[in-house]
Amino acid sequence: MTFKKSILLASLISFSGFCTASASFTFSDQVNTQNSDQIVFVDDVNALDGAAGELNSRSGGQLAKLLALNEFDAKAGSTLHLQMVAGVNNLWVVGSADEDGLSAPELQNLGGKIAASVDSLLNDVNVDVFIDNLNTNLPAPSAYLAQGYHMRHYSFDKYKTKKDAGKSDVHFVTGSASDAEAAYQKDLRYIAEGIHFARDFATEPGKSMYPALFADRVRAKLKGLDNVNVRVLDVKDMQKLNMGALLGVGKGSIHDPRLIIVEYMGGKKGDAPIALAGKGITFDTGGISLKQNSGMWAMKSDLSGAAAVAGTMYAIAKRGEKVNVVGLMAMAENMPSRDAIRPGDVLNTMKGTSIEIMSTDAEGRLVLSDAVYYAQEKYQPKMLLNIATLTGSAARALSKEYAALITRDFELSTQMMAVGERSGEHVWPLPLHPNHFKQIESPIADIKNSGAGNPGASIGAAVIGSFVAEDLPWIHLDIAGVDWLDSDIDVSPKGSQGWGVRFMDQLVRENK
Ligand code: BES
Ligand code: ZN
Ligand code: MN
Questions:
Q1: What family does the Swiss-Prot or TrEMBL record give for this protein (predicted)?
Q2: Mean pLDDT over residues 479-505, rounded?
Q3: What is residue 223's DSSP assignment?
Q4: Atom of ligand 1 nearest to the CA of 334
């Protein structure tokens, strides 16, 4: 392992975000007369009211006719683009019918849909969004629309000569405008920004994103925020702590590993924190157990867990949540080289137990084993969550809809499924059985890093679980399937969606 000069230089020039798309949101009960484009909601095509009703009368009933001609149905999420209705240049009609009321994630999805519609037509957007016909119990629905718009309005075009996306100015015409403005400006916008921060990390090529640089960016982003302390453990620090598993994974790379720790102490002094630990493999070649080439490029996003932790810590600290949270990011690059660890090697962990390496490609559980043990010993958290792009098995089982959720106690899993529903990021339980621990018994070490036969998500969890006290509420999230999107969804363009920021943010909100 050698420290390269170029690391310093690169870290100096890469602090800013890489998304050129920018969006700003304003809220008031007045129309912005400068805007020539509009968005209206319709929940019943046969009874147009609110802004849609007004446009319909001003157009002498043309809007109703156009909706019928285009067979527009008012189901939440349907969109129709029209031009020159009652003098409005571009008009988007958005369906908002929803029987049991629009939830926060459903509103975020609508906001994302709106962003996609206007962005596909206009480079610079100046638009009025009329808030009515929304069936919801939420006091400030436009704040969630803005959050969803903001989340979707992202493009990573740092390496393109032609930049994709321009500036959006979105004005919400709404009652209770000051509540909506506060909810967005003091809270929800930071979630969207945290998500973009996470996507930047996961999208950046492996050549330009490595542990030390990740640490520099986290430091820069959190600089000056109240109650935040960032600590970065380097190789020497980790050697003193005997973190042989984390160090072992990074051994084959010219880029040294790091353990990044963000302490956010916004809660009562002495209250046990929540610990969030993310897998941060800046590129996963598989190591000596080399992966095949097809799709290997996507392993630049094998740091998505750590990226989501970074984004969550940013959101929590920016809004000044009254809670104690510690975010840990276990960073290493998994490369084959003459220094790399081999299959059959035995690594010693901070806990004092040893791990036999069956596959150097099962590296995420190794870096997390030392990270979760450190979190538990140093901070005595009341709850410990780890998040990782850990197994192809989880991806195959649950695909894009759910992240895999593993706990020791089904009651906790049920609670986490509910947190997922409320956050818009869904999780589904997979089992953890005593036999999963049996399967990682090793003939020459305390455990091994994978079982025989089909590699499974539960085995990965069992390895990490071996480092977590049995009585500590522990949540394992395997996001290998969900983070990287092959096609757009409402709140994210394809590519990394920054999965986990909304989930962890919600978990923290509910566990103060
Ligand atoms: N980073 C991969 C898992 C992964 C696969 C993430 C596909 C995203 C998409 C992980 O490090 C890995 O290689 N897992 C192996 C473990 C096996 C060798 C025990 C797997 O799941 O095949
Ligand atoms: Zn990996
Ligand atoms: Mn791997």
A1: Belongs to the peptidase M17 family.
A2: 98
A3: T
A4: 11
| Residues, Cβ < 5 Å to ion ligand 2 | 281, 284, 302, 364
Is the distance from the beta carbon of residue 392 to the nearest atom of ligand 1 less than 6 Å? Answer: yes
Query: Measured in angstroms, how far is the CA atom of residue 372 from the centroid of ligand 2?
Result: 17
- Structural domains in the chain? 9-196 (3.40.220.10), 206-481 (3.40.630.10)
Q: Determine the pLDDT at residue 119.
A: 92
Region of residue 235 (left: phi > 0; alpha: psi -120 to 50; beta: else) = alpha
Q: How far is the CA of 72 from the centre of ligand 2 (A)?
A: 45
Q: Is the dihedral of CA 121, 123, 129, 133 positive or negative?
A: positive
List the alpha helices (DSSP H) in 204-351: 211-222, 235-240, 244-250, 304-319
Q: Is 365 a catalytic residue?
A: yes
Question: Would you call 279 helix, strand, or coil by DSSP?
Answer: strand
Global pTM value = 0.96
Give yes or no for residue 362 CB within 6 A of ligand 1.
yes
Atom of ligand 1 nearest to the CA of 449: 19
Mean pLDDT, rounded, for 279-288: 99
What's the rounded Cα separation, in Å, for the pair 270 and 259? 24
Q: What is the DSSP letter of 444?
A: S
CA-to-CA distance for 67 and 45, rounded, in angstroms?
Answer: 7
**Enclosing H/E stretch for 178:** helix 177-183
Nearest CA to ligand 1 atom 5: 392
| CA 284–ligand 2 middle distance (angstroms) | 5
Atom of ligand 1 nearest to the CA of 459: 19
CB 168 within 8 Å of CB 22? yes
Helix runs in 14-140, H state only = 50-58, 62-69, 104-121
- List the structure tokens of 422: 């409320």
DSSP H or E run through 495: strand 495-496
38 lines ligand 1 (CB under 6 A): no
The residues, ordered by sequence, that sit 6+ positions from 496 with a Cβ below 8 Å of its Cβ are 198, 199, 202, 203, 301, 304, 307, 483, 484, 485
Q: Residue 116's CB: how many other CB atoms inside 10 A?
A: 18
* 291 included as an active-site residue: yes
